[in-house]
Write a structure and sequence with these properties.
- By secondary structure, the chain is of the alpha/beta class.
- It is 42% helix and 20% strand.
- It has helices at residues 16-30, 47-50, 55-82, 96-104, 123-126, 128-135, 164-172, 174-177, 203-210, 228-238, 253-259, 261-269; strands at residues 5-9, 33-40, 87-93, 109-113, 140-143, 155-159, 182-188, 216-221, 243-247, 274-277.
- α1 (16-30) links the parallel β1 and β2.
- α4 (96-104) crosses α6 (128-135) and α10 crosses α12.
- The two termini are 19 Å apart.
Amino acid sequence: MSLKDILVHVGISRHRGQSLDVAIRLAQTFDSHLSALFTTANVYIPSYVDGQLTTEIIAAQREDLAEQRRKVRRDFEERARKHGVTAEWREAEGEASATAALHARHADLTVIGQLDPDESLPSPELALPERVLLESGRPILMVPYAGEFAAIGQRVLVAWNASTQAARAVNDALPLLKRAKSVTILSVNPRHGDKGHGEIPGADIALHLARHGVKAEATHIHADDIAIGDMILSRAADCGADLIVMGAYGHARLREIVLGGATRNLLEHMTAPVLMSH
């Protein structure tokens, strides 16, 4: 198992360099084909406004977007050429999240940058990470907008809750886990028994990984007074993790949105790249 096709979503965010660098580094490591996707929303002008806008204004707006796209493309192609990565540029017009999810279904891994709440971006891009995660059927690697990530997957923290989503995430992350120097399996507030984590939380998945040549250490903690997402981030910092692996949205989607949940916590407050599967 390897990563032969990697997709990176690129937009006009000033933080796009972080996700580009991570995607290029992974493509180097796995000798992968790297595709960059730039999505453009369909231009929609309400009928009551159309008559008030001059042809020159509309043309200027389109040219501004085209110039931004050319700038992003030059940046991507220069970075890929500098690092000797086989690269492909893609442009697609349509609803950003649906378009990105479609392209993600044809890649082993999709790299997406975390949203910066202080940055003004086109509204279609705001829901992109979450929707690609939920709709693509493929793993995504979220890259924080702050920080530099020279190494990815040397020290991995697996947030294990014995769910379907967590099992998928571990399987999707196997190419990275096999190369890791250390893997820590963390279970927070585990439930024992056949409807939970088994007799020893994390032991079964650690044994499964060992059969794949991954040496992993299983640990579990009980912290009912601390949010699970906060505990995962705290332990990731303690062990110097440069990658977190976890399943996403284990509860009903509406419940996650209303109550928050570990997935949303990680999406908003991540301090290291997070590989998620749903």
